[in-house]
Amino acid sequence: MPILITGGAGFIGSAVARRIVGATGDSVLVFDKLTYAGNLASLAPVAGDPRFAFRQGDICDRAAVARALAEFQPNVLMHLAAESHVDRSIDGPAAFIETNLVGTFTLLDAALAYWRGLPAGRAKAFRFLHVSTDEVFGALGAEGLFREDTPYQPNSPYSASKAGSDHLARAWRETYGLPTLITNCSNNYGPYHFPEKLIPLTILNALEGKPLPVYGRGDNVRDWLYVEDHAAALLLAAREGAVGETYNVGGRSERTNLEVVEAICALLDELRPRANGPYRELITFVQDRPGHDLRYAIDCAKIERDLGWRATETFETGLRKTVRWYLDNSEWWRAIQSGKYRGERLGLKV
Asked: What pLDDT band is residue 336 in, cutting at 50, 70 and 90?
């Protein structure tokens, strides 16, 4: 089965591409603009396989998208291309509106034309999987979980742009019949993660003896999902998910930000001890970011019940694998650090 992945050189997209080549007989075309977070090195393990192809392109470029669809003839379009960092969306929201809203519209428009031109049998089998986030639901209190029917209440430019793209995917199904389905995931972590997010940034700062910034008091809670488990869920949803359905994908691993940072410190104390004392001595509490949602937590019972998906990694096993990967793959992250992003604080321009 040919699968086209937008944003396939990014963190989650590259995990999906690696899984397609490594664990299935399907072929994949990665369509990616290669912005700062897109990295061909994340696709190196599968780049030489004849079932893998790459094309550099922008989802806002209607003609480029149409050419990729016409030439590759996918049965599934998995849409993961997005601007995704909340702090970055505070500093520069325009890019998030352009990519996440205008780009999703352009992609849906091109996919609709492609789908309408398919023979009846292939048109019936075609799927457009729109991959989104739990942040569209807003914030939870101390209790409760996000379900598929939780009302949307986004609180950042990033989550608002993703909420809008979710609504577009739904509207193209309701209005035009395009066979779309949506997934909303909790916080991903794992190998090949661009080091602006909490877990990789903490690991790399710790290794370099830098302060480990924790926003506010560190009591914001997230549900953590190992990226390889998420990739498996996305492929399952693309193959077996019902058109028109939404599936929440979570790790059932709620942790406060401070607990996450402390767990990383404990692993590094074990795996690469610091001469100057425990890594937790580097923890520094800093000004909280504007509009920081207190708690996210996913109810993933639906995808578990309907599609039989289960996360295979606990937070402890997944985090150990992640820390070990960054220790063993310094050439990957040092190449990023040599570029524009050097771990500086973002999201303070309000």
From this structure: confident
- Which active-site residues does the annotation give? 134-135, 158
- Residues 82/99, Cβ–Cβ less than 8 Å: yes
Burial 105-137 (b: 16+ CB within 10 A, else e): bbbbbbbbebbeeeeeeeeeebbbbbbbbbbbb
Residue 342: Cβ within 10 Å count: 9
**Number of domains composing the chain:** 1
Q: Are 185 and 133 in contact, with CB atoms under 8 Å apart?
A: yes
Q: What is the CATH number of the domain that holds 29?
A: 3.40.50.720
pTM: 0.94
Residues 237/306, Cβ–Cβ less than 8 Å:
no
On whether residue 63 sits in a domain, the answer given is: yes
H helices present in the chain, as ranges = 11-23, 62-72, 86-91, 93-96, 104-116, 120-125, 157-176, 198-207, 227-240, 257-271, 301-307, 315-328, 330-337
Give the number of other Cβ atoms within 10 Å of residue 329's Cβ: 13
Question: Any bridge partners for residue 128, and if so which?
Answer: 77, 180
